[in-house]
């Protein structure tokens, strides 16, 4: 009778899909220690082949940076995901980025987040590599990176998280 009331709720496993088309690189190989040393969380990085960045999961936008270079999403299972487009792109102050979401928006996997002019980013920032991190690792039971090399946005699973 009270089994459901006192039973510990099991975390739901979710799949995170690629947020952008491109080549997956291990986070440890990102040429920025903040990402390579996992100071902000664990995940993967993608060297984008185009500038269409989409939601990797269903959830809520919890951060839409005014500089348009990064978006934070809280997945339905509580995982907090940061997509950081390029390295040292905050200094572009939005140049080359068109953001399609704002804080509080609900998104579905594949919804447009940001359009990026990769030529501008390539010319004016350190790199176009785009890390996708789980930032609340202390709340995560398991994170499994898929063994994939080349991915298509919203089609290929890159991480499962519980």
UniProtKB/TrEMBL annotation:
Keywords: Kinase, Phosphotransferase system, Sugar transport, Transferase, Transport. It is found in: Cytoplasm. It comes from Oceanobacillus oncorhynchi. SUPFAM superfamilies: Duplicated hybrid motif. Signal peptide: none annotated. It comes from the Bacteria. One of its GO terms (biological process) is phosphoenolpyruvate-dependent sugar phosphotransferase system. GO terms for cellular component: cytoplasm. NCBIfam families: PTBA (TIGR00830). Residues 32-136 form the PTS EIIA type-1 domain. InterPro entries: Dup_hybrid_motif (IPR011055), PTS_EIIA_1_perm (IPR001127), PTS_EIIA_component (IPR050890). PROSITE patterns: PTS_EIIA_TYPE_1, PTS_EIIA_TYPE_1_HIS. One of its GO terms (molecular function) is kinase activity. Its main location: cytoplasm. This is Glucose-specific phosphotransferase enzyme IIA component.
